[in-house]
Design goal:
Elements lengths: L1 E3 L17 H9 L7 H11 L4 E4 L6 H14 L13 E4 L3 H15 L7 E4 L5 H8 L5 E4 L1 H10 L9 E5 L1 H4 L5 H8 L7 E6 L4 H8 L6 E4 L10 E7 L5 H9 L9 E4 L3 H15 L3 E4 L5 H12 L5 E4 L14 E4 L6 H8 L9 E7 L7 H8 L8 H4 L2 H29 L8 H7 L1 H11 L1
Parallel strand pairs: 2-7, 2-8, 3-5, 3-6, 4-5, 6-7, 9-14, 10-12, 10-13, 11-12, 13-14
Antiparallel strand pairs: 1-8
Helix pairs in contact: 2-3, 3-4, 6-8
Bound molecules: adenosine monophosphate.
């Protein structure tokens, strides 16, 4: 675990160190959490001290409880002076409806029996009036997708002045184009004093920089190798040309050594998901369902339920299912289409092998994915993945490696020059100006000019 920041509280090793009240403690036990997961060990003490946090940990590592528990613990302290039970105290934003529903389910389990605890689920695809009504019912925790929350607050005025905690789950998606302006619009309505918690399994450097501009004196927490797939997964990459993908999938799914139902098959288009589902049902006799953004919310919920209840053997999904969802019985993910970024790939593989359990991922690639060859190799090689020779010997991979090497040399040279100029041991025409800028003479000279 890597932790950065000022004045960081020590990690806890047991839930008793959090001083939760009796009901919350028994709820934690009832859901089967005996000891905190690594991310919870560090996030809980920092969040309970009202610190802003940006946390990166593998998919399925217990991030949801890491932000829900401190929120619920602080809500248990109701009755303080100035506490208004009618106003919401925390907002959690997540990118998909299904993820919001899952977060709300988990929140309800952890809130059970605690007085005055209500949640509002504010997501698209469901009628708006009941959601507005719910927001007016004196709820404490709002769990929302940004788009629907904005639709509602554009039409009705809600008082968010009592918000103490604001959570961005899957922060890298939430700060991407499209979502970022919505997130900022929502943030602008919240008190400056709020605590902000951000989570994801992948936080690219650019997102981290952007995120930090929204945080005050944050604690940065990373568990495991940042932006890597969950351990416990066996990765196999197969070289399959586009025209042979269906045949290859059918043969995998008809072989009991490879097929471990229920399986999630990721594809890159909604039409593709429907067509492949039909083909699996008719040609392979596999009970398959499709889930994507063009399905109605009832269809989406039913498809998900059929996987959770093991009533189907395969769910064919677009990236919609890629993030955060805890598909407890799923141990196998097949990337029929490789997603367009390595981050999405990492999240999608995370639907199998949750919380350290064992699972497998099978990925079809060919030259249409050439831009990701180096990312695939650097991400999966350390995990002893089975990689095809067509990938390892690909001219695209060799080209990308050379480019990366050159970039590294240039960076090292620049850093070396800077280092040398700082030490002052070698003066060259390149570092002369830098040396002059840094010199005491110049600083003194500047001072005297000011005087
Ligand atoms: P998440 O990463 O939040 O999706 O969590 C993955 C799974 O781990 C969910 O099924 C959680 O209920 C479960 N979980 C979270 N925290 C713990 C814990 N401390 N002990 C056991 N299971 C946990």
């Amino acid at each position: 675990m890597r932790v950065h920041g000022v004045d960081i509280p020590k990690p806890i090793t047991e839930f008793t160190h959090c001083n939760f009240n009796a009901t919350l403690t028994s709820n934690v036990q009832a859901v089967g959490y005996n000891i905190p997961t690594p991310i919870q060990m560090q996030v809980l003490p920092a969040a309970l001290r009202h610190r802003d946090i940006i946390a990166c940990a593998q998919t399925g590592s217990g991030k949801t409880a890491a932000f829900l528990l401190p929120i619920i613990a602080s809500l248990c302290g109701g009755g303080r002076v100035g506490y208004n039970p009618c106003l919401p105290k925390a907002i959690v934003l997540a990118p998909t409806r299904e993820l919001c529903m899952q977060i709300e389910d988990q929140a309800k389990q952890l809130m059970k029996g605690i007085p005055m605890m209500k949640t509002a689920l504010i997501v698209g695809g469901l009628p708006m009036p009941p959601q507005i009504h719910r927001l007016q019912q004196g709820i404490q925790l709002v769990i929302a997708t940004p788009g629907r929350l904005i639709d509602i607050i554009d039409k009705y005025v809600f008082d968010f002045s009592a918000i103490k905690c604001f959570v961005l789950d899957e922060v890298d998606t939430m700060l991407q184009m499209g979502f970022e302006s919505q997130v900022r619009q929502i943030t602008s309505l919240l008190p400056q004093t709020k605590q902000t918690l951000m989570f994801s399994a992948t936080i690219p450097e650019a997102t981290e920089k952007l995120a930090e501009t929204m945080l005050k004196n944050p604690v940065l927490i990373a568990v495991g190798k940042p932006s890597s797939p969950s351990s416990g997964l066996k990765h196999t990459v197969l070289w399959v040309e586009e025209k042979s993908k269906k045949k290859q999938l059918f043969s995998l799914l008809s072989d009991p050594t490879y097929f471990k139902p229920p399986v999630v098959v990721f594809v890159d288009s909604k039409v593709g998901a429907d067509l492949l589902t039909d083909a699996l049902c008719t040609k392979c006799g596999i009970a398959a369902v499709a889930i994507h953004g063009d399905k109605s919310q009832e269809e989406r919920s039913e498809a998900l339920k059929s996987v959770q209840e093991c009533r189907c053997d395969a769910i064919v999904a677009t990236g919609l299912l890629g993030r955060g969802l805890d598909l407890v019985h799923v141990t196998q993910v097949i990337h029929f289409d490789m997603p367009s970024t390595i981050e999405e790939f990492i999240h999608q593989t995370g639907r199998a092998g949750r919380l350290g359990s064992h699972g497998s991922s099978i990925t079809f690639i060919n030259n249409t994915n050439k831009n990701l060859f180096l990312d695939i190799v650097t991400t999966l090689c350390p995990l002893s993945a089975v990689l095809p020779s067509q990938l390892l010997n690909s001219p695209h991979l060799i080209q990308q490696k050379t480019k990366q090497k050159r970039k590294r040399i240039v960076t090292e040279d620049t850093q070396g020059d800077r280092h040398k100029s700082q030490k002052g041991d070698v003066v060259t025409s390149d570092n002369l100006m830098q040396l002059l800028r840094d010199s005491k003479w110049r600083r003194r000279h500047r001072k005297s000019r000011i005087l």
